DNA sequence: GTAGGGTTAG
């Protein structure tokens, strides 16, 4: 088959099956030396498609036995443009190892990849090669180096690289400016901004994001007002700034006032609504946007998963799989989907996702592994979870917490405590969720003293106990018959106002141990805090009944029925 | 070179 014919085919391929076919044709045709132009075409097409397509393109390239610097640099560049930084770097070192000298394109793309994944050692190595290869005066390479050090936060070296650039362009200046902005050195950023011989819209946008990061919205707005022309990034930066300052209304009014909204604008607003629990507004914006990309899907799926709407998350995930041949889910999509499965305890769906990942060649990362750890613990396979946990590249707070929670709900208190200690020893700072995990581990096996002391130790770890933590310990004390102590604990809460859950735990303890006196106190608090909930009334009625106080029990039960009647309207029997 | 998406509880 002619190379040009393959080129035409490649231009048209839209899904993986066609990509596969092309792959086979190349194999059969034994076209080891495709024209560089064709290589470019293949990669250009691949750039529009998914990770899986890239996977095939890589194998195409592999069977072509890349042996010239041009094909290699093209591939590295496209991979890096696709955001596949690790792949780009792997190919860079692969071709380097096989004796191909990188050109300036390959070097600057590889540096960009190092910068994006913060691979310090890789960048330093490439810097060394740059000197050997004599690329020190190529402005592309110099700017890539500058950007690499800026992203690492090493502004001393970054500035040095900048000083060595003879023909600085606006991109070099912007990289330096961006570096100071990112590490929070706003005064330095401002002086770079003032010194710049020319500024473009990126310079102004960087400066704005410097002020929005510092939550100085007045200065940010001043720049926004003064800048000669605005891009969508300028508007988006302002929206992000107001969101971070907790000013959702202002953020929304900027969003509404934008002359043109892009996916970044929508995603920013959707994830902000997600964080404050406003799923309806998020969905409304999601529906408004017709040109959806994978990130927009991901934002909405994550929004559902983060707000306990697991079924909706999975429904949207399935929709993405079925309706959109254009995008394949990526790591972000999958971790939200797995989280949703875990919330539902749906191990079948979870297993399907796992096999899907294998089939697609989607590599695991620590975030994804953490959601799988959570899934397996919720489905009772604690050994599998532990195996995944042991395989993590680095154990962060969330991973430890997921594992501790998992041990807790599976009755492995000892293991949970071991993990907790290990975590503290390695200098990590537990958060409120970690304590929920360790406390429920104690609760599960009835370790009363340990649980109580753990609650008391929270302040020492810099975590203020929340009402949820108190309810676990109240429940733990109550279950073991120490109702009075549980009551005393609630009274000692001070500034942490007990919610209905705390009093409810006490009420359940009273029901278990027939303590009418404390039950009446707990119940009256529950009624006060959650007047619409009938459960507490039934619980107290049961306690009265058990104590032989039939009249009181009856009075409460009648009250429940009356309330029940009031609450029903809205359902079908009205018709 | 600027602006966007993920994992732990309830």
TrEMBL record:
This entry's Gene Ontology molecular function terms read: RNA binding
The UniProt record lists the keyword Repeat: yes
Give me the PPR repeat coordinates as residue ranges. Answer: 169-199, 200-234, 262-292, 293-327, 396-430, 431-465
Keywords for this protein: Repeat
InterPro entries tied to this protein: E_motif, PPR_At4g14850-like_plant, PPR_rpt, TPR-like_helical_dom_sf
Short name of any one Pfam family annotated for the protein:
PPR_2
What does the record list as GO biological process? RNA modification
Highest taxon of source? Eukaryota
PROSITE patterns, sorted = PPR
Regarding protein family, the annotation reads: Belongs to the PPR family. PCMP-E subfamily.
PANTHER family referenced in this protein's UniProt entry, alphabetically: PENTACOTRIPEPTIDE-REPEAT REGION OF PRORP DOMAIN-CONTAINING PROTEIN (PTHR47926:SF545), PENTATRICOPEPTIDE REPEAT-CONTAINING PROTEIN (PTHR47926)
Q: What is this protein called?
A: Pentatricopeptide repeat protein
Q: Which organism is it from?
A: Salvia miltiorrhiza
């Amino acid at each position: 088959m002619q190379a040009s014919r393959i080129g035409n085919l490649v231009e048209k391929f839209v899904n993986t099956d066609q990509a596969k076919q092309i792959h086979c044709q190349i194999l059969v045709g034994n076209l080891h030396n495709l024209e560089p132009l064709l290589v470019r075409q293949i990669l250009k097409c691949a750039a529009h498609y998914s990770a899986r397509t890239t996977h095939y393109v890589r194998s195409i390239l592999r069977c072509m036995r890349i042996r010239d610097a041009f094909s290699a640099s093209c591939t590295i560049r496209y991979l890096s443009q696709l955001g596949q930084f690790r792949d780009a770097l792997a190919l860079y070192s692969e071709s380097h190892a096989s004796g191909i000298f990188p050109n300036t394109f390959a070097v600057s793309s590889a540096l960009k990849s190092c910068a994006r994944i913060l691979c310090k050692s890789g960048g330093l190595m490439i810097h060394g090669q740059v000197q050997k290869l004599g690329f020190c005066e190529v402005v592309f390479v110099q700017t890539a180096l500058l950007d690499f050090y800026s992203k690492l936060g090493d502004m001393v070296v970054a500035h040095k690289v900048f000083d060595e650039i003879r023909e600085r362009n606006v991109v070099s200046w912007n990289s330096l400016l961006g570096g100071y902005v990112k590490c929070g050195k706003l005064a330095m950023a401002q002086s770079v901004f003032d010194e710049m011989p020319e500024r473009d819209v990126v310079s102004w946008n960087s400066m704005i994001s410097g002020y929005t990061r510092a939550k100085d919205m007045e200065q940010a707005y001043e720049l926004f007002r003064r800048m000669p022309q605005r891009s969508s990034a300028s508007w988006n930066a302002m929206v992000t700034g107001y969101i971070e300052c907790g000013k959702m209304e202002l953020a929304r009014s900027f969003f509404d006032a934008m002359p043109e909204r892009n996916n970044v604008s929508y995603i920013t607003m959707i994830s902000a609504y997600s964080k404050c629990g406003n799923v309806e507004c998020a969905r409304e914006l999601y529906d408004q946007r017709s040109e959806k990309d994978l990130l927009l899907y991901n934002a909405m799926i994550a929004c559902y998963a983060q707000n306990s709407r697991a079924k909706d998350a999975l429904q949207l995930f399935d929709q993405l799989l079925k309706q959109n041949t254009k995008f394949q889910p990526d790591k972000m999509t999958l971790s939200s989907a797995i989280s949703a499965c875990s919330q539902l305890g749906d191990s079948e769906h979870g297993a399907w996702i796992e096999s899907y990942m294998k089939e697609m060649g989607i590599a695991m990362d620590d975030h994804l592994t953490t959601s799988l750890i959570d899934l397996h613990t919720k489905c009772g396979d604690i050994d599998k979870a532990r195996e995944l946990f042991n395989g993590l590249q680095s154990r962060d707070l969330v991973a430890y917490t997921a594992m501790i929670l998992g041990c807790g709900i599976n009755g492995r208190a000892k293991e949970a405590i071991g993990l907790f200690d290990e975590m503290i020893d390695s200098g990590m700072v537990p958060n409120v969720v970690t304590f929920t995990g360790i406390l429920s581990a104690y609760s599960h096996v009835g370790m009363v003293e340990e649980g109580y002391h753990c609650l008391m130790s929270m302040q020492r770890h810099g975590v203020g106990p929340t009402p949820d933590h108190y309810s676990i310990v109240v429940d733990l004390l109550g279950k073991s018959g120490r109702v009075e102590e549980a009551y005393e604990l609630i009274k000692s809460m001070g500034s942490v106002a007990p919610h209905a859950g705390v009093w409810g735990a006490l009420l359940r303890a009273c029901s278990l141990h027939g303590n009418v006196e404390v039950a009446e106190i707990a119940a009256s608090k529950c009624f006060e805090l959650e007047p619409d909930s009938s459960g507490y009334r039934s619980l107290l009625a049961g306690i009265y009944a058990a104590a032989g106080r039939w009249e009181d029990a009856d009075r409460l039960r009648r009250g429940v029925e009356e309330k029940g009647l009031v609450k029903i309207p809205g359902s079908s029997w009205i018709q």
